[in-house]
């Protein structure tokens, strides 16, 4: 039984892995205009509410922006042009995620720089600690010897 | 100079710029939110008004203009700035043009507001589809745009107008406050 079960399990695992790989590598199809509209609305900040996207908000302003997105896509505008249209009116503020890659990399870079500077400071600080005298001076040695002898007496 | 002393110089080099950023940030007016429209031609608009007429922004050409976005539900901010707007037009109506734009409001709501807090002499555009609010990047009433005689947006003020803000913006428009 074991002789049969092991190859079957391996084959099943391989087949599963293959399916997962196929799904991951499958080229994504072109999104439909409604999908594009939902995606753009999800990237834009609702102008008159807090921490909500245009896609999530039920305010009249968000509804108006959703309507304009649909109209602009229907008029043949590319998603990037639609985003640029709203950025030109509201500024980068309207984007829920920063458009500049610098905004993503700057915080971890600053943290890493800080850790590096702190490590350097620790290493340099350790180097400045005065070396411990390995041999006590002769006078002190004599005094210690005398005190030990007094204790023993 | 010894490297150990140089290291202490790093402290002011880091702390002073941070302190400067903090203090300049605290000193900024949070109502003066930067707008991509500042320095650019005002977006053109047209539409029906509360009085049943038609208004086009081309009517603003040739004089400084104030475009005020408001709504009857915007309480107390729009109520607070209403007398400031009335005073502005009473004293400088000959020097500038004023237009109101409704934000997510009904004509009946706006008429009720004006009946209660004071009728105005300037047109108020209905903006039913919110397209004018979007074109101006309005985040919520009240918001006011100051436009010079060439049609260039000079400033955007978020929140209720005060006499001090009006005086500052009038001076920028070249009008004696």
Do you know the CATH topology of chain B?
Glutaredoxin
Assign the CATH topology of the largest domain in chain A: Helicase, Ruva Protein, domain 3
Span between termini of chain A = 85 Å
What's the average pLDDT of chain B? 91
Portion in helices of chain B: 25-40%
Tally of helical runs of chain A: 6
Helix content of chain A: 55-70%
Protein structure class of chain B: alpha/beta
In the CATH hierarchy, what is the architecture of the largest domain in chain A at level 2? Orthogonal Bundle
How many structural domains can be distinguished in the coordinates of chain A?
A: 2
Q: Segments of chain A where pLDDT lies below 50 for 5+ residues?
A: none
Topology of chain B as a string of helices (H) and strands (E): HEEEHEHEHEEH
Low-pLDDT stretches of chain B are none
Rg calculated over all Cα atoms of chain B: 21 Å
Distance linking N and C termini of chain B: 58 Å
Features:
heterodimer, A: 153 residues, mainly alpha, Helicase, Ruva Protein, domain 3, elongated, B: 177 residues, alpha/beta, Glutaredoxin, two-stranded antiparallel sheet, 5 helices, 7 strands
Your description of this structure?
The complex is a heterodimer of chains A (153) and B (177). Chain A has helices at 2-25, 33-43, 60-74, 79-90, 101-127, 138-152. Chain A has two domains: 1-99, Helicase, Ruva Protein, domain 3, CATH 1.10.8.640; 101-152, no CATH class. Chain A has six helices and no strands. Chain A is mainly α. With 177 residues, chain B is of the alpha/beta class. In chain B, helix 2 links the parallel strand 3 and strand 4 (97-102). Chains A and B meet through helix 3 and helix 4 of A and helix 4 of B.
């Amino acid at each position: 039984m074991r002789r049969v079960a092991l190859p079957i399990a391996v084959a099943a695992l391989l087949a599963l892995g293959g399916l997962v790989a196929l799904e991951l590598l499958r080229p994504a199809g072109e999104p439909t205009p409604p999908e594009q509209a939902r995606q753009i609305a999800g990237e834009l900040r609702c102008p008159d509410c807090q921490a909500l996207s245009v896609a999530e908000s039920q305010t009249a302003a968000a509804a108006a922006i959703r309507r304009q997105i649909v109209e602009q896509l229907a008029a043949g505008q590319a998603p990037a042009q639609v985003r640029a249209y709203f950025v030109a009116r509201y500024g980068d503020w309207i984007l829920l995620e920063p458009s500049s890659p610098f905004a993503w990399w700057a915080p971890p870079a600053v943290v890493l720089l800080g850790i590096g500077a702190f490590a350097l400071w620790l290493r340099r600080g350790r180097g400045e600690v005065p070396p411990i005298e390995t041999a006590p001076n002769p006078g002190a040695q004599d005094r210690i010897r005398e005190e030990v002898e007094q204790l023993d007496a | 100079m010894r490297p150990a002393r140089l290291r202490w110089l790093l402290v002011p080099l880091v702390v002073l710029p941070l302190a400067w950023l903090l203090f300049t940030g605290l000193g900024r007016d949070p109502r003066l939110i930067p707008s991509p429209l500042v320095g650019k031609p005002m977006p053109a608009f047209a539409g029906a008004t509360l009085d049943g007429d038609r208004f086009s922004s081309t009517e603003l050409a040739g004089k400084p203009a104030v475009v005020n976005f408001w709504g009857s539900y915007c309480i107390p901010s729009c109520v607070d700035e209403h007398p400031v707007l009335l005073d502005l037009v009473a004293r400088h109506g000959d020097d500038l043009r004023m237009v109101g734009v409704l934000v997510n409001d009904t004509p009946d709501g706006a008429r009720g507001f004006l009946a209660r807090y004071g009728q105005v002499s300037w047109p108020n555009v209905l903006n039913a589809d919110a397209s004018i609010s979007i074109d101006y990047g309005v985040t919520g009433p009240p918001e006011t745009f100051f436009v010079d005689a060439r049609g260039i947006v000079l400033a955007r003020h978020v929140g209720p107008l005060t006499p001090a803000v009006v005086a500052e913006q009038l001076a920028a428009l070249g009008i004696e406050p």
